[in-house]
Amino acid sequence: MQCGRTMAAAFVLTIAGLVLCLSGFAEENKDFVPGEDSGFYYTIKKGDTLWDLSQKFYNSEWDWPGLWEMNQEIKNPHWIYPGRKIRIFLKEKAALAPETAKAEEVKQESPPENIIPSFSFSEMDRIGFIKEKADPDLGSVIRDQDGKIIMSSNDIIYITPSGKGTLIPGNLYHVFSVSPVERKAKDGNFSGVRHLLHARIEILEHKTTYATAKVVKAYREIREGNLIMAYNKREPVLTVDENPSPVKAKILCSEDDNIIINDHRIAFIDVGSALVRPGQIYSVMRGIGSAGKSLWPENSKDQVKFDPVTAGKLIVLHTEAVSSTVMILSSKYEINPGDIIN
After folding, report:
1. Relative to the CA of 128, which of 5, 41, 79, 278 has its CA 20 to 30 Å away?
2. H helices within 38-187, ranges in order?
3. What share of the chain is helix, strand, coil (3-state, %, to 5)?
4. How would residue 78 be classed by pLDDT, with cut points 50, 70 and 90?
5. Is 218 part of a structural domain of the chain?
6. In a domain, 30, yes or no
7. In what order do the strands lie in the sheet with 118-120?
8. 135 and 208 housed in the same domain
9. What is the domain extent for residue 101?
10. What is the pTM assigned to this prediction?
């Protein structure tokens, strides 16, 4: 009897170990899924190799180990398959010495192939925006079913309809808040209304004087008085344009009014859909001594005006008429409201 129990236990452990191994293998071979994962990616075409892609993206075939390291589901760098999406990284192109540049021009008989990467941002639906005026609301949050002051995911909330639209049971909506954005500058003033998205909700019931909803996903805390708007799903995958036409723009602020807007933070710039489009990448420039950081007192005779330096890179995620929502991709120096976009 004891022997039978031992064999059964060993069998269970063997099966459990096999399940763990298989689950680990599946996780190890997880592919990059645009829209669910965030980052830059490229779709492999017939005839591509990691060496060729390294040369095309980075002007050096010897950067291929970096591509391989970022895509651990590729078991053999000699074998990559058309249609598969791989992660890529974007970096500054190194400046060539004049002699090297001339040699490259002579060697290059035909122009390089234009490789167009894409950018995937899984949280595209939750980013805020700035409009000239506040969007009309469909209602406002009264309270949580359990009387919580701060509401979050899976909570049931009560909403007072505004009468400006219909809250339809089964449909998704956004909880949002608004705040003014003002910027006074010598080259012109900016005035708009920032819309911050707090949560995605689903309407459960619509009574005569109120509606109930479930918080499907909270992005930030929900409080009494927060407003309701229709849920608009945004395209999470953008075609990248690394060389857009220059624009004259500045950073207005970040979503959360951070003094320093560092990597991966969401911010807003003061140009809109007439001049920029989603997927465009720009440099963030700052003059030494700009943004209130003078190196000497204003009345000093030793003041020197320096050329702007590149502080970082950003990508445009969403555009409105008067502004655009951007993400800081990378930063060499601190980035602040008022810094210039080039």
Report:
1. 41
2. 50-58, 64-70, 98-107
3. 15, 35, 50
4. confident
5. yes
6. no
7. 85-87, 39-43, 118-120, 237-239
8. yes
9. 39-120
10. 0.78
